[in-house]
Amino acid sequence: MLVRVVRGWEIPEREATPEAVYFNRRQLLRAAGFIGIQACVGRAVGGRGPYPAKRNPEFTLDRPMTPEWAATSFNNFYEFHPTDKEAVKDRVGKFRTQPWTVEVTGLVNKPAKFDLEDLLRTMPLEERLYRFRCVEAWSMAVPWTGFPFAELIKRVEPKAEAKFVRLVTANRPREMPGMKMAPWYPWPYYEGLRMDEALNPLTLVATGLYGKPLPKQNGAPVRLVVPWKYGYKSIKSVVRIEFVAKQPRTFWNDVTPNEYGFYSNVNPAKPHPRWSQATEKLLPTMEPRPTLVYNGYEKWVAGMYTGKEF
Ligand SMILES: Nc1nc2c(c(=O)[nH]1)N[C@H]1C(S)=C(S)[C@@H](COP(=O)(O)O)O[C@H]1N2
Ligand SMILES: [Mo]
Q1: What is the pTM for the complete model shown?
Q2: With CB atoms 3.0 to 4.6 Å apart as the test, which of 87, 108, 224, 295 could cross-link to 156 if both were Cys?
Q3: Residue of 223, 234, 250 with the most ligand 1 atoms within 8 Å of its CB, for mutation
Q4: 3 state SS of 112
Q5: CA 19 to CA 249: how far, in whole Å?
Q6: CB-CB neighbours of 59 under 10 Å
Q7: Model confidence over 41-80: pLDDT tens digits?
Q8: Ligand 1 centroid to 76 CA: how many Å?
């Protein structure tokens, strides 16, 4: 109840308050014990499973890690709220993430239905610090837990004709209140990668964040993380993975084709039709920072491209 009252005065104020001031006030509230109750409750349930996983030292950051409260309270997840990023976390309660099955179909020798618990037991989980850049120009830097997508792909043995991978999010309008608010979108959310992009060692299947299972607002229980591409390629709450011969359609490209392409590689030199991509703003201070080509992952990914796939 207290949280409700607080939100009441936060919302109008926020519109007239610079982001930095707003977020600092949240930090104060948190220190005073008004928010952050979730952390204590989580501990009491017990059984941390595979978390935290061992950190892979290959991936280091050039900026401070985003505080956990910021990365878990400022979310794009249109299925829960199509416009208010701070409302998402308060609207995920009905979403059931257990049990969870990921179906892998299409041009593979070994189609499979993976139980998430089995994946957690059998995949090589590790922690990676990655930069994450939303096309809207905010960015964060967070510790994901997960395994390389390539490990899962190996298990299903794609056929030679498989040239692309298509991924689909859960379709549960009764548990995802944002879907009904925006019925004109082509639900369920879908994304895709070229096969070499899917196999690139950077492409992670994430099941955790900050050494704990993924919060629902961040795509529980399993999502993709493609750190050199704009955030919308990192599809959340994945239920189906299909191996296909032709470049699949993608959600944002279908909604706004002149603004969002298939590749969507981060590029400071290519402005969005409605704003520049030359700088980004770090959560939660919104401090500006130059955008890096391929989000700083050129060394790992530039070899896959001719230079035109932006
Ligand atoms: N299913 C689904 N996946 C999604 C989205 C979404 O609305 N639905 N939003 C995307 C966008 S635009 C971004 S920036 C990231 C945000 O991830 P985060 O909330 O964990 O920061 O998720 C991506 N994955
Ligand atoms: Mo985004």
Answers
A1: 0.87
A2: 108
A3: 234
A4: strand
A5: 35
A6: 19
A7: 333 334 578 999 999 999 999 999 999 999 999 999 999 9
A8: 5
